[in-house]
Amino acid sequence: xxxxIVVIGSGAAGLFCADGLVARGxxxxxxxxxxxxxxxxxxDWMRRDLATPADVDWGHVDADTxxxxxxxxxxxxxxxxxxxxxxxxxxxxxxxxxxEGWRWNDVAPYFRALETDAxxxxxxxxxxxxxxxxxxxxxxxVDTAFADWAGEQGHAWVEDQNAxxxxxxxxxxxxxxxxxxxYGVHEALLPRLRQYLRAGTTAQRLLFDGTRCVGxxxxxxxxxxxxxxxxxxxxxxxxxxxxxxxxxxADLAAAGVPLVHDAPxxxxxxxxxxxxxxxxxxxxxxxxGLRPVNGVLLRYEILADDRVxxxxxPHQAKPYLPGEDAAEVFLGLGLMRAVSRGSVRLAxxxxxxxxxxxxxxxxxxxxxxxxxxxxxAALDALGDVLIEPENPWWRDRERLPDHxxxxxxxxGTCRMGTDPGAVVxxxxxxxxxxxxxxxxxxxxxxxxxxxxxxxxxxIGLRGAALVLPE
Length: 470
Ligand SMILES: Cc1cc2nc3c(=O)[nH]c(=O)nc-3n(C[C@H](O)[C@H](O)[C@H](O)COP(=O)(O)OP(=O)(O)OC[C@H]3O[C@@H](n4cnc5c(N)ncnc54)[C@H](O)[C@@H]3O)c2cc1C
Prior knowledge:
The protein is of the alpha/beta class. It folds into two domains: 1-137 and 178-267 and 411-470, FAD/NAD(P)-binding domain (3-Layer(bba) Sandwich), CATH 3.50.50; 140-171 and 274-337 and 359-403, Cholesterol Oxidase, domain 2 (2-Layer Sandwich), CATH 3.30.410. The protein is 22% helix and 23% strand. It has helices spanning 12-24, 44-48, 91-95, 104-113, 141-152, 185-188, 190-193, 233-243, 249-254, 362-381, 453-466; strands spanning 3-8, 27-33, 60-61, 68-69, 115-117, 132-136, 168-171, 173-174, 197-199, 203-209, 212-218, 221-224, 227-230, 246-247, 261-262, 274-282, 296-303, 308-316, 328-335, 343-346, 352-355, 386-387, 405-406, 436-438. The strands form seven sheets. Strands 7, 16, 17, 18, 19, 22 and 23 form a seven-stranded antiparallel β-sheet that branches. A five-stranded parallel β-sheet has the order 9-2-1-13-24, with helices on one face. Helix 1 runs parallel beside helix 11. The longest helix has 20 residues, at 362-381. It is globular. The chain starts with a strand and ends with a helix. Flavin-adenine dinucleotide (FAD) binds at residues 8-14, 32-35, 70-73, 77-79, 81-85, 202-203, 231-234, 236, 240, 408-409, 440-441, 451-454, 456. Its cofactor is FAD. It holds the Pfam family NAD_binding_8.
């Protein structure tokens, strides 16, 4: 009899996983998405504005700071609300996972398969027939001035930031096309997946017969399944497992959730890239408007220990804040190698708590302080291009905690591994139960030193080959 596989979540990983499972052809696929499906072509806000409308966001906050934590709740998931920076991690990011089958040489073919790189598609490191278009936007005057400054500081010019091992200053790779901000899954994947999609359907609980997952209780009814693949993202995936009885036994007992499997790792190991923006103005109001969003990126190692990589880049403000002054520019600062760990927890009242714990470790605080020094040096040198406001907060480092944000790169809450604490094994099967896999950003043991969309897509694509219903 043909098996039924239910994929939960139509985000970066879920779409690629469902697409791969459909292509495999050996099971019926049902793709659940809690949010709506706005259709193809996607609405104008999704193509052109970087602000996330409240009705397509999960509404989470960091429990410790109360600050909003954006997570897309719509077909495409966070790829529909993100900044379309399409940057790969470094080879050593995957090698250091130390997991057979997930080293750089193993995962690189999947990165190639998912892209069509407009500039470098014919090179061995790249692909030219995948669904995600990757391109680099021409520089505006602010980008050029910033790139010149970075070169004067000794940073190498990098022709291709997605070449393995790239470090230095160069064009942001983006999934941008035709002047639109985001492009990819809504145009290439969703049209062929809609026949399997059930949008507006929230998975509320996984159903078990003993320790065997046999289906999903959803907002619209029960769905029987031979296998369930959870691709709900780094907050909702652990939250769903916890609600379903897979997680730390004490937390589940406190919330009155019957235990299916005691798995202390569910929701632990949360990683993000701490991020902040320095809001400045372009001296020439027309300068930033010459390109839509991502122009120049400087990525470099600010602490030699543990290869602590950072991002520094000027970013046009307007697409984030439609209606705002076009001369506004953000100088973006991202710590791409954080050692602090947060968590996603089930509170006693059954709600989901996210603790980001940004800069909780002194090494992260030190690295971020050095990054602020470098950002200040850039602003001092570029005074005729970028104008600082009166008394900017960043001249008083005590004020940093009020301005620290998430780069949106949450990973690690259902960590893959071969040790007893791992939540999923290297084939993405949830340890301790059967009929259940996880394939999304949450399985990454350690975050790559890059924006996490491409790595999440890679996991979905690779997951489609690994998930085997019994
Ligand atoms: C504001 C923001 C900006 C970002 N910018 C970038 C960027 O520029 N470049 C980059 O590389 N990365 C960026 N990221 C990160 C990147 O988008 C994510 O890492 C990636 O999308 C994660 O993929 P995922 O499949 O794990 O989760 P998601 O893409 O979040 O997909 C999860 C999906 O599951 C659905 N879902 C969740 N729970 C349920 C449920 N119970 N039932 C049914 N469906 C459910 C969600 O609605 C969602 O559609 C950004 C993220 C954010 C939030």
